[in-house]
Amino acid sequence: METADYKLLLTCPSGLLPSQLSVVFDRSYDRIPHPNAELEDSIGQIWEDRVQGNSSLFNGKKYRYGGYSLRDGGEAKGVSHPCLHLGSTDYRTFVGTNLNPLWENFLALSEVVFTVDDVIKCQHTASPLGNGAIVVTADNEIVVLRRSDNVGEFPGHFVFPGGHPEPDEVVLATSQNGQDFVSIEELHKKISEEIFDSIAREVVEEIGVPATSLSTPVFIGLSRRILNVRPAAFFYMKCNLPSKEVHQLYSSALDGYESIQLHTVSPVVLEHMKSKMPGCHQGGFALYKLMIQASTNA
């Protein structure tokens, strides 16, 4: 599904638990440098210009989205589960490619028919995998944040709580007890866990609710905004607190500086707000509606 603002790369309307989503991390999914040296050189200059204008920006490692495949569901015969293909990138390269004013010049031109998620088309962009959560309160309101004017991406826009899965969290987990090396299988398992753990962490930090008030995140799909081809994974989470209490807790949120206002709204109201959301988050709302439709039909 594709609109003027977003493309749905993967839809999972029944929702997937951590055991149903796997990950392969391989450097073959890293960004391929663009053959135009001048364009490549612009990455560093764009970053320096952005940092000078906003001293709160900092570089950090990110997982690069390199597509997905469908794998056999194991004991559940006839059922296939998605496997995300991830490489390595960083925020600096994201700013210098996806957020570059000349971002379209980084897109690969090819006579090859692009795969469903346009992996070839985006091979020269950083395309870090973002995440977002559609959090529904006990009184069936959806949590939406208005971003601060100081953030590096879409300041002042409405968004769902979210951020990025963090490679450093996986390194920390695998280095505990002096364990400096893990098998590939164990590494992939840790990254898969971080995909889910990170969105729960982002929700707690950004809106201030306790982790115990939230259900286990359920993966509902991948969305990519058309503007600068930014990919994001989206999840559904239920919060057992009413909207009024969520508003009260927001004032003490750890990452409250990233947003300036919290809204709790009905799907009908959000339908009118979505034009002021980044395209990938509009796609996240579309994934949520597909989930609701599937559950209604069931």
TrEMBL record:
<dbReference type="GO" id="GO:0052751">
    <property type="term" value="F:GDP-mannose hydrolase activity"/>
</dbReference>
<dbReference type="InterPro" id="IPR015797">
    <property type="entry name" value="NUDIX_hydrolase-like_dom_sf"/>
</dbReference>
<keyword id="KW-0460">Magnesium</keyword>
<dbReference type="InterPro" id="IPR000086">
    <property type="entry name" value="NUDIX_hydrolase_dom"/>
</dbReference>
<feature type="domain" description="Nudix hydrolase">
    <location>
        <begin position="126"/>
        <end position="293"/>
    </location>
</feature>
<dbReference type="GO" id="GO:0046872">
    <property type="term" value="F:metal ion binding"/>
</dbReference>
<keyword id="KW-0378">Hydrolase</keyword>
<dbReference type="InterPro" id="IPR055295">
    <property type="entry name" value="NUDT22/NUDT9-like"/>
</dbReference>
<protein>
    <recommendedName>
        <fullName>Nudix hydrolase domain-containing protein</fullName>
    </recommendedName>
</protein>
<keyword id="KW-0479">Metal-binding</keyword>
